[in-house]
Amino acid sequence: MTDLVPLAAVDPAAIEALLDRAFGADRFARTAYKVRGSATAIAHLSFAAVDGGVPVGSIQCWPVALALDAGGAVPLVMVGPVAVDPARQQGGLGRRLVGATLAAATGEAERLMLIGDPDYYGRFFGFSAARTAAWRLPGPVERHRLLARGDAVPDAAGMLGSA
Ligand SMILES: CC(C)(COP(=O)(O)OP(=O)(O)OC[C@H]1O[C@@H](n2cnc3c(N)ncnc32)[C@H](O)[C@@H]1OP(=O)(O)O)[C@@H](O)C(=O)NCCC(=O)NCCS
């Protein structure tokens, strides 16, 4: 049986190894890592899927903000990486992990963003690129993969970075 537990309950080194397996060891060069900077994952929104004590999936969320060109900054939550062990993909774990985060995001539900496949995060969870066209990031991003969800997400020009 696979249980979801708080990410903090799992050995961080095992999560890093899982992320390497899901994304490759060059994952640190990704723009998402630059956006979140040296922030600490938001504990109540971050989970691990554990099977017999072994982590087989994880989701991490980070405090970020859009610094508006017009002034001020809007706090957002960056969801991801979502990682499922390659041997366990396509079995519903990714959906369980994202679902757990969405269920826990009571105060943050209207201001979520991520970089990911719209065919997955749009289809199952309602994320879209409708409000992100004018956002700038500290690295390259495919615009159709820059997704957000919620009424508090700004449809405005600005720079995305750590909060
Ligand atoms: C993407 C990922 C999190 C999905 O989790 P998963 O447990 O494998 O997928 P689920 O079982 O929850 O969902 C399966 C469904 O989603 C679809 N799906 C899975 N990955 C998809 C993707 N990248 N794009 C579009 N659809 C996808 C499948 O086709 C399947 O659809 P179906 O039910 O109609 O057959 C997982 O495959 C993974 O870790 N991949 C590598 C890392 C990655 O790319 N992470 C996402 C970026 S943050």
How would you explain this protein's 3D organization?
- This protein has 163 residues and is of the alpha+beta class.
- It has four helices and eight strands, in the order E-H-H-E-E-E-H-E-H-E-E-E.
- The chain has helices at residues 12-23, 31-36, 93-104, 118-125, and strands at residues 2-6, 47-51, 54-68, 73-84, 112-115, 135-136, 146-149, 158-162.
- Strands 1, 2, 3, 4, 5, 6, 7 and 8 form an eight-stranded mixed β-sheet that branches.
- The longest helix is centred in the first third of the chain and has 12 residues, at 12-23.
- The mean pLDDT is 97.
- Bound molecules: coenzyme A (COA).
- Coenzyme A (COA) binds next to helix 1, strand 4, helix 3 and helix 4.
Ligand list? coenzyme A
Low-confidence stretches: none
**Can you give the mean pLDDT?**
97
Secondary structure: helix percent: 10-25%
Number of strands: 8
